């Protein structure tokens, strides 16, 4: 009875509660959609601009809104990742301002950026 009351209290409190998985262990909580103010944008890049870039490829004839959103989000995450790595390179030089050489150093240091080697030349 106490367990049912605790479950009801947890369900009514608005906090996510852990549910037991098939093996009896607690399952990982499901990711929740971020709750934000109405009108907040899910993407920081303008989707119309991303769509224009996608349509500039002659091999692309149609591009759905979901695909455009996913491409925009992937571009945001890529820029965020490379900027953080380049900022770490700037901090090693005791600077706060990113320079081109910081991007070059980040590209050389991180294996995931190997495809970018030589693109800034």
UniProtKB/TrEMBL annotation:
Database matches in SUPFAM superfamilies: Histone-fold
A Pfam family the protein falls into: CBFD_NFYB_HMF
UniProt-listed InterPro entries: CBFA_NFYB_domain (IPR003958), Histone-fold (IPR009072), Transcr_DNA_Rep_Reg (IPR050568)
Residues making up the signal peptide according to the UniProt record: none
Top-rank taxon, per record: Eukaryota
GO BP field: DNA-templated DNA replication
Keywords: DNA-binding, Nucleus
A GO CC annotation given for this chain: epsilon DNA polymerase complex
One GO MF term: DNA binding
Main location: nucleus
Feature: compositional bias, Low complexity: 1-15, 25-40
CDD domains (alphabetical): HFD_POLE4-like
Transmembrane residue ranges: none
All residue ranges annotated as the Transcription factor CBF/NF-Y/archaeal histone domain in the record: 44-107
Subcellular location: Nucleus
Region (Disordered) location: 1-41
Quaternary structure, from the entry: Component of the DNA polymerase epsilon complex consisting of four subunits: the catalytic subunit POLE and the accessory subunits POLE2, POLE3 and POLE4. Interaction with POLE3 is a prerequisite for further binding with POLE and POLE2.
Function summary: Accessory component of the DNA polymerase epsilon complex. Participates in DNA repair and in chromosomal DNA replication.
Protein name: DNA polymerase epsilon subunit 4
Lineage: Eukaryota, Metazoa, Chordata, Craniata, Vertebrata
Gene name of the encoded protein: POLE4
């Amino acid at each position: 009875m106490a367990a049912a009351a605790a479950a009801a209290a947890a369900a009514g409190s608005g906090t996510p509660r852990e549910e037991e998985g098939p093996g009896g262990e607690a399952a990982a909580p499901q990711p929740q959609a971020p709750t934000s103010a109405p009108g907040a944008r899910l993407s920081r890049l303008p989707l119309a601009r991303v769509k224009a870039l996608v349509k500039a490829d002659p091999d692309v004839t149609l591009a759905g809104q979901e695909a455009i959103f996913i491409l925009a989000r992937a571009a945001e995450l890529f820029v965020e990742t490379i900027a953080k790595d380049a900022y770490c390179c700037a901090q090693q030089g005791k600077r706060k301002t990113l320079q081109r050489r910081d991007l070059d150093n980040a590209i050389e240091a991180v294996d995931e950026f190997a495809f970018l080697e030589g693109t800034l030349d």
